[in-house]
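Look over both lines:
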Amino acid sequence: MNKKATRKCTVAKVAAPVKARAAKKTVAKKPVTFTFHAEKGKDVFLAGSFNGWDPAAKKMAFKARKNVYETSVNLAAGDYEYKFVVDGSWCADPENVNCVQNDQGTFNSVITVK
């Protein structure tokens, strides 16, 4: 007699390889408000290490109620250098005593975000 040989096969389920995911670092940023006192009608911009020192990147708005130019930038913790550009002239923040000398022989204001 010919008996059919039966084999029991078990198919092992192999989990597909899991791709390693790069951990996303979420850098917490918070709004930092910059103000500059000047009369209405000036062109005031904020330039600094946080925007590539672009003198036209961040225009500041005049706030009549406070009589200041103001803008906010979202920044992560760290130290940042900045200046105001008023009608094309660069100036350090007159209300911030923290500053460092730059390679132009003038000073940049420094802000520390915690």
Notes: Residues 29-113 form a domain with the Immunoglobulin-like fold (CATH 2.60.40.10). Confidence is low (pLDDT under 50) at residues 1-15. The chain is about 0% helix and 45% strand.
